Amino acid sequence: MAEQRRRLRSSTVVLGGMGVIAAALTSCGSEPDRRCVDRNSYDFADGYKIVADKNCTSGSASGAKRKGGGLTTTDAAWYYDADVTGRYADYGTFSRSEAVDRDGFGCSGSGSGGG
């Protein structure tokens, strides 16, 4: 009977350890939440206005929109790990690597080198 208890404990430890490793690997490879925002639209009370994803490319993109007969520019960029309220996002970061570092366990070597 004592041997059977020992086996149950060992299997529990092994399974628990595998769960921790799986969680660490998953958090390292996961993409942070991101929203495409207009950098020129910051409002102190609301944050950045969220715009269509097509305005953001792999990095940041600037585009021109026609509005009421005039031409306005949209400085669109990906904004990571932000608090989203309606059509606005705030308290995030424009740095993808910073968003990955502060989310979950983080990944070694993915952070910015200070500054």
Task: Report what the structure shows.
The chain has 115 residues and is α+β, with helices and mostly antiparallel strands. It folds into 2 domains: 1-30; 34-101, no CATH class. The protein contains 2 helices and 6 strands; from the N terminus they run αββββββα. The protein has helices at 2-29, 96-101; strands at 34-43, 47-50, 61-67, 70-80, 83-85, 88-90. It has a 6-stranded antiparallel sheet with strand order 3-4-1-2-6-5, with no helix packed on it. A hairpin with a 2-residue loop joins β3 (61-67) and β4 (70-80). The protein is elongated. Residues 108-115 have low confidence and may be disordered.
Order of helices and strands: HEEEEEEH
* Rounded average pLDDT: 73
What gross morphology would you assign? elongated
Q: How big a fraction of the residues is strand?
A: 25-35%
* Number of helices in the DSSP assignment: 2
Q: In terms of structural class, how would the helical and strand content be classed?
A: alpha+beta
In total, the number of domains comes to 2
Count of distinct strands:
6
Order of strands across the biggest sheet? 3-4-1-2-6-5
Gyration radius, to the nearest Å? Answer: 22 Å
Summarize the structure.
This protein is an alpha+beta fold and 115 residues long.
Highlighted features:
alpha+beta; single chain; elongated; Lipoprotein; 2 domains; about 120 residues; six-stranded antiparallel sheet
Write the layout of secondary structure elements.
Layout: H1 2-29, E1 34-43, E2 47-50, E3 61-67, E4 70-80, E5 83-85, E6 88-90, H2 96-101
Antiparallel strand pairs: 1-2, 1-4, 2-6, 3-4, 5-6
Protein name: Lipoprotein
